[in-house]
Amino acid sequence: YKQEAPKTPPHIILHYCTFKTTWDWVILILTFYTAIMVPYNVSFKTKQNNVTWLVLDSVVDVIFLVDIVLNFHTTFVGPGGEVISDPKLIRMNYLKTWFVIDLLSCLPYDIINAFENVDE
């Protein structure tokens, strides 16, 4: 049988829709990329900054920032197993749970570091 999708405001994304599932896979892959490249860059970074890597890392940071925006508009499952689609409840839930971690993950540390190394 097929279950009917809950009625949601137009700007709200269902957490189980195809777009969100695909997006989450992209975020997972980029998280693995970051988990490998950040320690590598810290360990083996030379004085010569490679612009290509800086641009690529900046694109990843922007994608993580877009993920934050999407999370403010994505339904979640409440404590009783119901799908929560009220925008205010979604915002409050995200702010109380993953927002700080997500925000810290998308700060452009590479760009900040590049500007700090200009003086050296």
Provide key terms for this protein:
5 helices; transmembrane; single chain; 61% helix; 120 residues; two-stranded antiparallel sheet; K_chnl_volt-dep_EAG/ELK/ERG; Ion transport domain-containing protein; mainly alpha
List the helices and strands and how they pair.
Layout: H1 18-44, H2 51-71, E1 76-77, E2 83-84, H3 87-96, H4 99-105, H5 109-116
Antiparallel strand pairs: 1-2
Helix pairs in contact: 1-2, 2-4
Task: Describe it.
With 120 residues, the protein is mainly alpha-helical. It has one domain (18-116). It has helices at 18-44, 51-71, 87-96, 99-105, 109-116, and strands at 76-77, 83-84. The chain has a two-stranded antiparallel ribbon with strand order 1-2. Helix 1 runs antiparallel to helix 2 and helix 2 runs antiparallel to helix 4. The radius of gyration is 18 Å and the shape is elongated. It starts with 17 loop residues before the first helix and ends with a helix. The mean pLDDT is 88.
